[in-house]
Fold these 2 entries.
Entry 1:
Amino acid sequence: MKSIRFLHAADLHLGAKFRDFQNLPKKYSDLLNKSGYVAFRKLIDKAIEEQVDFVIFAGDIYNVEDKNLKAQVEFQKGMKRLYEHSIPVYVIHGNHDFLGGTKFNLALPKNVHVFSKQVEHKQLTTKSGETVEMVGFSYSQNHISEKMVDQYFKLGIADFSIGILHGNFGSRTEHGNYAPFTIGDLRAKDFQYWALGHIHKRDIVSTAPHAVYPGSLVGRNRKETGEKGFYLVTLDETECHLDFIEAAEVKWLETEIIFEEVTGFDRLITEIQKKLKEIKDTGSSVLLEIRLDFSACANIDHSILKEEEILDALQNEEDDDIPFVWIHRLELILPQGILESGHILKDLYEVADTMTIKELREIISPLTSHVDVNKNAIFSDLEDDLLQDLIEDAKVELVRQWGTIK
Ligand SMILES: [Mn+2]
């Protein structure tokens, strides 16, 4: 039976900066900052080890806005290693690494095909003689709202057909609504596999045909939790088999501890340490967000519960080991009613609580459109999840401030 095997990765964002965490030990921030490159090398190793027929990168390999030469040199190095092992590579560029967005333009070896800004067809014959038709396009700017999927079609001249698309599925709101498509759009094209990119959460959006987001190669922020990596895909005439390969050395997780009653700081710290140990025993390095839920504790003296103090005590606990578990964020959930009416903080809280992302965008528009403020294009592509974070952080801060008022 005819069969092909390939790697499918997307949203590498090589070299993209991570948020600076004030107290994160240098050993851990180094590990975090290198994690994207380490994961990328793992991917190249895997391609060689498995002798795959080809590799697909479905966009956002690096960030144009970072002007990151190092990321592009690393990518070029990886491509040369694949060239030495005669492994072809198919690349589309996405909204973060759009064509012409970088001045470096490093030459890639001959095994790499970069799709042009128009929807383009490429055909490949594998070492064992199977033919594969691939269809894709690269972004030529950072916003493409057009339904590019409408321009995809199958020539039907090969054993296998794959659509490569960097775009937004359905009405997902966590990333920009670029090159949107629905399952119906994909089905109508009759490809065997859709190699998707753009949404950073791993997702098999359809199995007939298989349409897959491998998700970001490493977790980029606290919203990108869990295992991160890429897929090893095996396609034959009737089936598609997906092997997820974990590549990220550091992962982001969130957890919650519910307190039915408050019995002092001893118990509080012990419970948290117990949770940290459980996570550490899994053997991964973890950046942890932890929520302490006191909403069932009616008579809590919230004025002595301070996130910063608890966090500080726990962060000092860390002993420089690798793998590590480090709490990057701690949130207290206090009983309803702590915010009573008649105080300006309560009013502010309500404003934050009901604010939509659209409203926030309008409020900050003088900033985002200001020439001086925005000269490094920092505000040019603020994603919804970041704005949602800002709102949530404001709410947490308001509750915290309220807790200190007597
Ligand atoms: Mn991306």
Entry 2:
Amino acid sequence: MARHAADKFDQRDHAWMREALRLAGRAEAEGEVPVGAVVVRDGQVIGRGWNRNIGLDDPSAHAEIIAMREAGQKLANHRLVNCSLYVTLEPCPMCAGAMIHARLERIVYGASDPKTGAAGGKFDLLLDPAHNHAPAVEGGCLAGECSESLKTFFRSRRKSTVATQVD
Ligand SMILES: [Zn+2]
């Protein structure tokens, strides 16, 4: 029997995504767009990241890039072989490119991103068969919680922008 779309993720997937969500909270606390990511190998987190573009004055400081950098340092290898990456939001084209270079085995994301998502949300970059490395890509893990944290952030930001304009 075909498995339900809702239960293609197991408890461990949910646990890693919860950790990514916790890191998204750190981004939010620092005034960044709340996205978090973890790189996992052999049941252990070897890289953690959250969006830090503003704090680091770095256009490439997305959660996934930071998590992959840390994992590479830990493994002393630019290839993250046998690693999975969990991220709360569908990766953008920049991160998708880095993920292909990293040779990740599996990529799991939470919310879809119809604006810049590169796993089919907007672009089909991550799944393009032209790559010589094809990671497994699965979206929708804790999608409700992941998109809720982003929605709440943008809602409160809109409110504060309005408040500033009124002031
Ligand atoms: Zn990105």
